[in-house]
Amino acid sequence: MLEVENLQVFYGEIHALKGISLQVGQGEIVALLGNNGAGKTTTLRTISALLRPRRGRVLLEGQPIHGLPPHEIVSRGVAHSPEGRKIFNRLTVTENLEMGAYLRSDGTVAEDMDRVFALFPRLKERRTQVAGTLSGGEQQMLAIGRALMARPRILLLDEPSMGLAPILVEQIFQTVEDINRQGTTILLVEQNASMALSIAHRGYVLETGAIALTGSAAELQEHPEVKRAYLGEGA
């Protein structure tokens, strides 16, 4: 469904992505793991056209999208829930969700908002609350919900567990699984490798802008290097 081919991205003279290639099949959850600075967020930002690659291609169902503007990427069915949430603090929960549907002209926006409220009942309780006054967990729910309002075929999900209490992390990941079961393909960037691999079908490990490992979630969970560096196991 989504293919990244030999992606090379620079920040000035800094070579951030060094020719990475990956694939996300329809219906999959694919985890993208790695330490800070490995290039995970840069990969998602490049897919969603917030960054331009110097070389390489991004293909959606075989069609190149890397030269398109960000709003066109969204209209093709790719939505991005960014690292740090980036909600509109002064808007209400409902207004934030409406912003996620800003490109849509169909008659099912209200239906999709009901879907978000079903996934995140706490947002329904706070639908008129100003988003900046929500807790961190509620803001993360809102960021994911806003992305879903674009009715994406593939969701780029960047660090959904960042800064959250363990019980909220479990709730968020259970909901991510629900979203996937409802038919949305997911490319998941996550520092919590254990949680990510517990719900993913496959995964890639990035190190300093390059793919170091790839395999099924089960294979990566058992890989000695993944255990040592990301799962806190081994010497």
Description:
It is a single chain. The protein is an alpha/beta fold. The protein has a domain at 2-84 and 153-229: P-loop containing nucleotide triphosphate hydrolases (Rossmann fold), CATH 3.40.50.300. Helices cover 37% and strands 26% of the residues. The radius of gyration is 17 Å and the shape is globular. The mean pLDDT is 93.
CATH class of the domain at 2-84 and 153-229: Alpha Beta
- Widest β-sheet, arrangement of strands: 6-7-8-3-9-10
What's the helix count?
10
**CATH H-tier superfamily of the domain at 2-84 and 153-229:** P-loop containing nucleotide triphosphate hydrolases
The N- to C-terminal Cα distance equals 38 Å
How can the largest sheet be summarized?
6 strands, mixed
